[in-house]
Specification:
Order of helices and strands: HHHHHEHHHHEEEEEEE
Helix content: 25-40%
Shape: rod-shaped
Number of domains: 2
Keywords: Membrane, Transmembrane, Transmembrane helix
Distance between the termini: 93 Å
Radius of gyration: 43 Å
Largest sheet: 6 strands, antiparallel
Low-confidence stretches: 52-72
Length: 384
């Protein structure tokens, strides 16, 4: 092998000098030892070869430097890499600690994902609204993932999430002549029945306990007994049939407040002939009212009403032309105390079920509209 030229030794020396200027004492000592060893090996090779230059293939001098001496990373580069690795490790640790803290504070985020609730909520949020209910269903709505309502999502976990909003859920069917009543007369009766249901169950004034003027104005004052009974129930609310809640949905705003301005509604109505000179409008609707109290707890009050209105021919009956009479009416409520008091429905929050009258009747699905309202017992519900 040939000897190392003076230029190469000079460059090597300058490199050692630069590294020694920035490096600690210990690395500089090692550099001097390696330099001395290389010089000693070079002198020994030169003596053995008789100072004859030994060429490698293609006539290039064969380097005698140890592998990596000139090509390896400098100490500064290695230290910079270590600092970057420590920085990345610290960042990962911070992210991990934050994630762990979030799970501790809100474990439901992890639990919901593991149990499938997160996916179920996404599927429910993307579900299409149901078409109108033209006839009574034959079964209860399909099961959905049970979930509690919140202020942000008051219909979460409820079949009502796919129902229509407010008055849009009270669809008036196309009118046709019935039992001697013209199509125009039938259409007028259907329209007034809808107006009554809206005024009695959706009007904000009615909901907060004010007198339901718009609904009362549609009723026939000449109907025996009914107008007097309703007036008495509004003036002096009692229990049972003497409660205005039998016909009007009312809440005590000192206890609860509506969550948002949406009430979910589903049901149907139809016109049919009654006795001679009588037109009947048969209605069956369920209203879902999300209500909240001061501690931000939310409960869904579910009210189902079956009301049959009568329109009578004044030539045959003691009646006022164009007014509705109440032929029959009955109601049931879910997620409320068993008896309305003070003329109000009182939402029943699960965490408060420690005293008072407890439901003791059979369990029912408040969203099942396949049968008629049964009795006035106080039962339990299978879902809210």
């Amino acid at each position: 092998m040939s000897g190392i030229s003076d230029e190469e030794w000079q460059r090597f020396g300058e490199q050692i000098a630069r590294e020694a200027a920035d490096a600690p004492k210990e690395p500089s000592a090692r550099a001097r030892m390696v330099t001395e060893r290389l010089r000693r090996e070079e002198r020994e090779r030169a003596a053995a070869a008789g100072r004859r230059g030994v060429l490698g293939r293609r006539g290039r001098p064969v380097p005698s430097d140890p592998p990596g001496w000139r090509t390896g990373p400098s100490r500064q580069e290695a230290e910079a890499r270590r600092r970057r690795r420590r920085g990345l490790g610290a960042t990962a640790a911070i992210v991990g600690i934050a994630a762990l803290a979030l799970v501790v504070v809100r474990p439901e985020l992890l639990i919901d994902r593991l149990t499938g609730k997160t996916q179920a909520r996404a599927a429910a949020a993307g579900a299409s609204p149901l078409p109108g209910e033209s006839v009574r269903p034959t079964a209860a709505p399909d099961a959905v993932y049970p979930d509690r309502p919140t202020l942000k999502e008051p219909f979460r976990g409820s079949p009502a999430a796919q129902w229509a909003d407010g008055a849009a859920g009270i669809e008036v069917p196309e009118a046709a002549a019935v039992g001697g009543w013209s199509r125009e007369a039938v259409a007028d009766a259907l329209s007034k029945a809808k107006r009554f249901l809206v005024a009695a169950n959706l009007d904000p004034k009615t909901l907060r306990g004010e007198r339901p003027e718009a609904a009362m104005a549609l009723l026939d004052p000449r109907q025996p007994e009914v107008p007097e009974r309703l007036e008495r129930s509004l003036a002096q609310p009692g229990g049972g049939v003497n409660s205005p809640a039998i016909l009007f949905t009312r809440f005590d705003l000192a206890e609860v407040q509506p969550v948002g301005d949406v009430v979910k509604v589903r049901g149907s109505m139809r016109a049919e002939a009654g006795d001679p000179g009588e037109l009947l409008v048969v209605t069956d609707y369920t209203f879902v009212h999300p209500m909240a109290r001061a501690d931000r707890s939310v409960q869904r009050t579910i009210v189902r009403r079956q009301i049959t209105f009568s329109v009578l021919d004044p030539a045959r009956w003691r009646a006022t032309a164009g007014r509705l009479q109440l032929h029959t009416y009955k109601a049931e409520w879910s997620n409320v105390r068993c008896e309305p008091t003070g003329g109000f429905l009182h939402p029943d929050f699960p965490q408060d079920r420690t005293g008072g009258t407890h439901p003791s009747g059979p369990a029912t699905d408040p969203y099942d509209r396949s049968g008629d309202i049964q009795g006035d017992g106080c039962g339990t519900v299978t879902r809210s």
